[in-house]
Amino acid sequence: MIALIHRTTLLQTLPLDENLITPCDELLPGWPIPQWAEDEQAALPATLTLIYHLPVELHTMAEQLRQALAVRGCQLTVIFHDAKTWDGCPALASADLMMGDRLIGETPEYTLEQWMRCDPLWLNVLTHPQFAHLQATLDAVQRQRDDASRAKALLGVVSTLMDSATLTPLFNYHYRISAPPGVNGIRLTPRGWFDFTEAWLPASSGEEAGR
After folding, report:
1. Rounded CA gap, 41 and 96, in Å?
2. Which of 28, 40, 71, 191 is the most buried (most CB within 10 A)?
3. Are 202 and 172 contained in the same domain?
């Protein structure tokens, strides 16, 4: 299944806006995904269930995957969870495949570690003993003395999950900010955040009149 997604043109032919997403071969820079060879003879189950949540681009991905599996004799039932998280999603427990997104930001190792600790997804992907083992492993990662050692240990954890096809990245988003460079003297920083050191707005006319 993972080889079908990554080693065929499925990701490259998504009918989405140009430059919106880019198929990825790394979970994080320098953290490559396994290189599986697609086996055209590999048997797929007769039926599978996929559940996914926002963003909207995953609508397209789900439909493309449904069509690709149908060609190979597998009927994919697609369920959309209309939210940005898995909280309060009863259908998650019965799904075979899950798709969602994760905003990594500027602290990628910390974000991934917290995701594996806190997201209800993992209690449905893993058995209880497997989940307990994952938490114990993450505890051991956090006991490493320095950032570099912790990052290396965390890479080992996620590499194991990717090797077993429990986890795989699909694509990266390329967001662009469409906004004027400044409003009322407040400027955007290069990363898009307002420069709050200059966030001084003029008093409203009512406040001025009451002085």
Report:
1. 21
2. 28
3. no
